[in-house]
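Sample A.
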Amino acid sequence: MTTVRSRHQGGVAFAFVIVLVALNLRAFLTSSSPLLEPIRLATGIGFHAVALLTVLPMFAMGAMSLFGAAVGQRIGARGGIALGLGAIAFACASRYVAGGAAALLWSAALAGAGVGLVQALMPGVVKQAYPARIGVMTGLYSAAIMGGGGLGAMASPWVAHVLGGAQADWHAGLAMWAVLAAVALLSWLGMRRVVPGMATTTSTTATPRQNLSWQRCFRSPRAWLLALCFGLINGGYTSLVAWLPHFYAQRGWTAQEGGSVLALMTAAQVVAALAMPALARSRGRDLRPWLVLTLVAQFAGFVALMLDLPVPAAGVAVTLGFGLGGAFALCMVLALDHLPDPAQAGALAGFMQGVGFMIAALAPFVTGWVREQTGGFTHAWAYLAAVVVVLLPLMLRFDPRRYTASTAGLFDSQPASSAVAATAVRPVLDNARKV
């Protein structure tokens, strides 16, 4: 048993590649929010359509997360993640020549689909690559996702200002992330040089029942509970990505200043995503106290915004970032903890993300509508604070002693890793081990 497990331990080089890939999963999303005003002036995009720049990619992430496992079984984890990165790179590059709202929305949807494909496959890869360090590696992966969001919020308005001056070259600010995606794609594909015969397809070994494994989650109350909690938590994040810079712009802040607040929030997310899973793991399997702690931080941040308390914007951003980043990473660990088999746990995590991101996509619409009806963001922040209150009792239901009972009958008794994970993920991991 020890010998087999040691063969599939990922190394430092593989961890670096995982981080590089993860940096691409939010940068395109957060880059547009600080540049909202020049984009609106140039394209004439309306207030409701602005929300679609966040809503469309989130819906696409959710839909592709559901189908990503089946794609991975057909072309392998390596091929599926490469395809997702290619979609992100192409979508970002197309924004350099985007002339109107339709092109921007199309690129947002395509990039979201690429992200969804990567996110569907990467948790299973991480779980099987680092079975003894799942908390640390999931935290690192989640932190890199958040870090990419911070880069998008900070670097895009800076590049737009440098290249365009007072007019702000928003095309360059949005398209620059095609370069990072291309670098990540080449790094991921470069692993084949280590193992020239790396498999790219798994369709010959995956059974029809295994191909549809994620569909079995639709009949599981526990899978729906995970998806609901994940979606409501990320709804706070998507609302802040869509509206926080605009909230400060209404107070006379520049695009760079508003982007810096969003970047600071994501920096706090990075720290929390790194620290919380590892800290929670060091104290046992029960993640509920730590999840409650992150929700309390979110509630405090939203209340500070709602009541316009005399708290510096930096303090609010750090508090919200800690709560959102820690909760995101802990939810990923929570889903993977429910099942010992990597492929089955990956399918459950894929369902959680797929349905969850579609739930999260509704939040910017709701908060945007509330803002339009009331003329300000006070009631929007109150709505998000109320959502956190609803989440608190839901999180208390995740007792680790009930994981086995809550997932009984979800998948076949025969571990899927014997067929699917061993063929879809193992070529990537064997290569990582040799790196």
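Sample B, a different protein:
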Amino acid sequence: MPFAVYVLGLAVFAQGTSEFMLSGLVSGIATDLGVSIPAAGLLTSGFAVGMVIGAPLMALFSRNWPRRRALLVFLGAFIAVHVVGAVTTSYPLLLATRVVGALANAGFWAVALVTAVALVAPEARARATSVVVGGVTVACVAGVPAGAVLGEQWGWRAAFWAVALVSVPAVLAVARAVPDAVPEESGTTGVREELRAPTGARLLVTLGAMALVQGATFCAFSYLEPLVTGVTGLGAGWVPVVLALFGVGSFVGVTLAGRLPEARTDALIAAGMAALAIGWAVLGLAASNAVAVTVLVLLQGILAFGTGTALISRVFLLAAGAPSLAGAFATAAFNVGGALGPWLGGLAIGAGYGFRAPLWVSGLLMALALGAAGALSAMRRVGGPYPRGESTQETEISGS
């Protein structure tokens, strides 16, 4: 695996910490800025909306830039908005910095995924994807709990400053390790041809399933802090521990998915979706039991990110005709879920259903994802194997 791929994972770690850290800071932000907890949760949705919009726009905007220059520009903008976010006393301005930061993050993600895949042989693409996505899981293991500790000790602004500082080494590493040119340059395919790529039915259904899986994940994850303190009855000091458990699980899930043979990817997606649907429902029932919560949070982290990584690999396979935008498609779908989940969870809490409600919403979203998986399985039976001559012997997404 080229060293540059690991460098991209390092940069994603810094950005992933920012994307997820609010799950341990919502109460502090709400109190400090005088807004409700659902409003503070919408900062996560605002970031995700910026990612959704920014992924294709930034990928097209930087399409003809040298890869290293694009990555450095996006990282520089990301650092700048976090400095602004750390000093502002205005909720609207903080929300705006989240959106702008997400645009930069989206651009980085789109370029980083395409670059990582282009730097390795075809048979190593799933592993390269897992290394980049693994930066997010390391953020969940270390960055997000550390942000929660900083927020507990010195206030939520300290976490924003920490993200900006951690991003500086990533800038230096990208500048030294990532080449400007990679084996598969984006200029070989026209913009119009790439924009037509997401019109394929199987790709659209795969992206929809991915959005639903991530929506379920973000819905539950964004409100773990009030769940742990308000329902499970654990003290605030346990919040970083629970968040770290989810992060450990997510790292394990990404690692396993990256090493799974290509022929088993669809089986992983099917089994992962079914287990996630059951797991969120069981967690909702057992939320008052501390032991059950800690075990289930770990397992759900494994399933959520293992399934999500497998779906990203499928997007790259189905979007073979869009070398520049394949990463943007995956990033956008990932963050449609990131926007939808916290919003729906906040609506459920705001409606008076309590802090267990996001878990029930997550279970419902997974049921919809299973329906999408069934539709994709039916399409494969009619349409034949995946592009690039993928084996027709591969296990169907339904697991049959």
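Observation for Sample B: The CA atoms of residues 222 and 248 lie 17 Å apart.
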